Amino acid sequence: MSSPSLNETGQVPASVSLDGAGLHVLMTADAVGGVWQYALDLAESLRRHGVETTLAVLGPAPSVDQQATAEAAGAQLILTGLPLDWTAEAREEVEEAGRAIARIAAQVKPNIVHLNSPALAASARFDAPVVAVCHSCVATWWQAVKGGALPEAFVWRMDMVGQGYAAADRLLAPTQAFARTTAQVYDLADAPLVVRNGRRSPNLETRASTEPFVFTAGRLWDEGKNFAVIDRAAARLSVPVLAAGPLQGPNGARIEAHAVKALGRVSDTEIARHLSANPIFVSAARYEPFGLAVLEAAQAGCPLILSDIETFRELWEGAAVFVPTDDEEAIVAAVERLVQDAQARADLGRAARRRADAYTVDVMSAGVLAAYRSVLARSSHESSLEGAAA
Q: What gap in Å lies between CA 364 and CA 42, rounded to an integer?
């Protein structure tokens, strides 16, 4: 059965309710990082509002457990094999990927195209309104991690992302801090609309460990995650440090783990099992537009030790211990204080959990659905005006 879309005049058909019922969304995603969890959580939550989601997956194919999670979320997967904008070797590859997504959109006829990789809109034209999300980009990553002039390989990528931002009907960002940075770097007239990310809770029973340990998770190979400083700190800590996530990325980046016990890529369920023991969760990220791994730890009631960056301050001020980025001595001191003080660990964990209650999937999906309604209503109004003027 075909899904409803804007009719030939651009009006929303009568069968489509702007509260979400009857809407069909074509959403892009990749299975490499946090965008995967974002897309599946959003699709599952939107389904409760009557929204059908087709997920066009770029980059490496999802693992078996990832595909099972997508099926449980009710998302229809299209595995495209198309390159990600940050791993492609040439601009032409990204341009063709954008056109391929547009061809998929022409076939599935969605009401909304939701691009989690905005660069795809640089060369493509869609019949449906486009909502794009600034999850991250090479230009803001470089600014936070390296500094100085962009390398040539990043310049064309930044240009395509900027074109994608300009082409989108609505641009979203997960934090005020990242919205400001994005507006500054890309010289946007208006900052992206902020819709904070949420994460579904696995609802596992908390079983606080009698022996404290440290846990971290994410794309460990990514310099922006700053795993190296955690690994150095681990060599000086009195408790074990466990890290979940790949040590090698699809772009060839790689990092070694020396003092940390590296678990590799593990399933969401396995990460939740580790977090249910209430370890001390540490993130030393230099660059983090939001940080879903931190949210997962907070939902589990883990005490948080975070690098002192704008996004973490915005989200977790008063509910975490902050340490200077790259300061392994500060990380060691903060961890050891919590190791010696069970009450402080418990208090900090409760504070994190309370704050996490503000960042739910329901709140996120409500914000995204409001953005969908806004662009559909505007598209309908503009089409009405064009029809009247004809």
A: 7
